[in-house]
């Protein structure tokens, strides 16, 4: 008896933002394409999407034209930008094959939820909303919480969010809030690291650091003279290949701290700067106990140049900050090379979780994370990372983790506990979690 043929269906994924910087929606598209769907992925292409998407025969990316830069008052600019986005999104939707469903992310609610709802109403497709956060809570950061635009955004989210055929959200706290206050039913889909975020062997770390030496000067050794007569074949600030070809950590290597930021007002980067100021003073006072610290900050955003200027004015001797541009395939590997991660994200709604921490955990990197309402759904203080409320606590955590680095015997037990918990976290990856959580919902539509 022959197996029944697999039915190929069409699905649409809408990202009213940069596709390359929307990992969760990219993972949705990838998972759909790997099952039985032909996927139309609509969004802006400001940075390179995943290779798995651009090379897939089951995924077609539809590039939206960005809103032109106009010198307008903020409210007027927001209105015109929303109209532009609504028109370009509608044109893109009309151009695709009728999908079984449209999966869109919120935020932004304006105009995404409105346009997608109207399109689905006309084509009799299903609308699915993936709730990452709330549009109105993000707008309230930079404007009056009870202002006109915030109230309009909230009304649209309430009205159109209820009309979705299904929904997903990122935390149990958000699921409860959507149900209790919005009458919206949503299934919790926790972010999980994809397979490219994993611990890597020292040999692979050395190869990456050797290659990045070409663009990040701080990864170069402070001097080659000490290795002239030792037979060392290759050396970075952190690692070396000895005469017999074995890769080892350098005994007095610097520590690497890594943070990924969107350089936006909802991530107070000044907190990290202040924490590094304290670390600088400690390490100058007790240089035998605190290593040179190389702080890697990745990401793009509107406040990046401002903080780069702030850092340049610092006269730090024991702290170096670099803001490199990394290839997509290098970022997971660099996470695996770091000694400590820092997450400055605090939720505008108190209901979402930072995906960057998920990636760090996937790579085996413990994290110091800003404390907010539901962060403990991801970070458990002392078990897989640390939580801080202010820059003093952040500085204290960095100092304790790096004291007598890298051989602080007093931290042996805690490191073992954290490493074990991170290994357990890594057991469930995005693909398995998506099949377990999302597929049943899609099949029920």
Quick structural overview:
By secondary structure, the protein is α/β, with parallel strands linked by helices. It has 15 helices and 16 strands.
Topology:
Elements: E1 9-18, H1 23-34, E2 37-44, H2 51-54, E3 59-63, H3 74-95, E4 101-106, H4 112-123, E5 126-131, H5 135-142, H6 148-161, E6 166-169, H7 172-182, E7 187-188, H8 202-212, E8 234-235, E9 239-241, E10 247-249, E11 255-260, H9 269-285, E12 293-298, H10 304-312, E13 319-322, H11 330-337, E14 340-343, H12 355-362, E15 367-370, E16 385-388, H13 391-402, H14 412-425, H15 430-444
Parallel strand pairs: 1-2, 1-4, 2-3, 4-5, 5-6, 6-7, 11-12, 11-14, 12-13, 14-15, 15-16
Antiparallel strand pairs: 8-9, 9-10
Helix pairs in contact: 3-4, 5-6, 8-11, 9-13
List keywords for this structure.
alpha/beta, seven-stranded parallel β-sheet, six-stranded parallel β-sheet, 40% helix, Glyco_trans_1, transferase
Q: List low-confidence stretches.
A: none
Structural class: alpha/beta
Sheet with the most strands? 7 strands, parallel
What gross morphology would you assign? Answer: globular
Overall mean pLDDT: 93
> Into which percentage range does the β-strand content fall?
15-25%
First-to-last CA distance:
29 Å
**C-alpha Rg, in Å?**
24 Å
Strand order of the largest sheet: 3-2-1-4-5-6-7
H/I helix tally: 15
Task: Write up what this structure looks like.
By secondary structure, this protein is α/β, with parallel strands linked by helices. Helices cover 40% and strands 17% of the residues. The chain is built from 15 helices and 16 strands. The protein has a 7-stranded parallel β-sheet with strand order 3-2-1-4-5-6-7, sandwiched between helices. Strands 13-12-11-14-15-16 form a 6-stranded parallel β-sheet, sandwiched between helices. Strands 8-9-10 form a 3-stranded antiparallel β-sheet, with helices on one face. Strand 9 and strand 10 (247-249) form a beta hairpin. Helix 3 runs parallel beside helix 4 (112-123), helix 5 (135-142) runs antiparallel to helix 6 (148-161) and helix 9 (269-285) packs across helix 13. The model has no long low-confidence stretch (mean pLDDT 93).
């Amino acid at each position: 008896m022959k197996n029944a043929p697999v039915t190929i269906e069409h699905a649409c994924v809408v990202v009213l933002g940069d596709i390359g910087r929307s990992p969760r929606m990219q993972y949705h598209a990838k998972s759909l394409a790997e099952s039985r769907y032909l996927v139309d992925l609509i969004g802006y292409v400001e940075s390179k999407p995943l290779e798995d998407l651009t090379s897939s025969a089951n995924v077609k990316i539809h590039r939206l034209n960005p809103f032109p830069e106009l010198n307008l008052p903020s409210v007027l600019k927001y209105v015109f930008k929303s109209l532009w986005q609504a028109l370009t999104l509608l044109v893109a939707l009309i151009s695709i094959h009728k999908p079984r469903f449209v999966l869109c992310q919120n935020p932004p609610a304006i105009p995404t939820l409105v346009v997608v709802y109207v399109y689905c109403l006309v084509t009799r497709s299903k609308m699915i909303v993936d709730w990452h956060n709330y549009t109105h809570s993000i707008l309230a950061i930079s404007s009056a919480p009870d202002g006109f635009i915030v109230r309009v955004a909230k009304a649209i989210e309430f009205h159109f969010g209820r009309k979705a055929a299904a929904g997903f959200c990122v935390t149990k706290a958000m699921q409860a809030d959507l149900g209790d206050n919005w009458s919206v039913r949503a299934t919790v889909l926790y972010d999980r690291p994809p397979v490219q975020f994993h611990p890597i062997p020292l040999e692979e770390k050395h190869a990456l650091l050797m290659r990045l030496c070409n663009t990040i000067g701080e990864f170069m050794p402070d001097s080659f003279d000490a290795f002239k007569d030792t037979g060392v074949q290759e050396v970075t600030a952190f690692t070396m290949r000895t005469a017999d070809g074995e890769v080892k950590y350098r005994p007095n290597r610097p520590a690497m701290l890594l943070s990924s930021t969107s350089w936006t007002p909802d991530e107070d980067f000044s907190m990290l700067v202040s924490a590094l100021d304290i670390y600088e003073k400690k390490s100058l006072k007790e240089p035998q106990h605190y290593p040179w610290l190389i702080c890697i900050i990745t990401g793009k955003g509107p406040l990046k140049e401002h903080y780069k200027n702030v850092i340049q004015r610092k006269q730090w001797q024991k702290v170096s900050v670099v803001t490199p541009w990394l290839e997509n395939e290098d970022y997971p590997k660099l996470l695996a090379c770091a000694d400590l991660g820092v997450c400055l994200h605090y939720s505008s709604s108190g209901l979402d979780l930072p995906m960057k921490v998920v990636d760090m955990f996937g790579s085996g990197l413990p994290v110091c994370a800003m404390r907010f309402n539901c962060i403990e759904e991801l970070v458990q203080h002392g078990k897989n990372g640390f939580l801080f409320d202010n820059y003093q606590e952040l500085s204290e955590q960095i100092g304790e983790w790096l004291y007598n680095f890298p051989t602080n015997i007093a931290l042996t037990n805690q490191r073992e506990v954290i490493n074990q918990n991170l290994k357990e976290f890594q057991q469930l990856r995005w693909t398995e979690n998506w099949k377990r959580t999302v597929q049943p919902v899609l099949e029920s539509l």
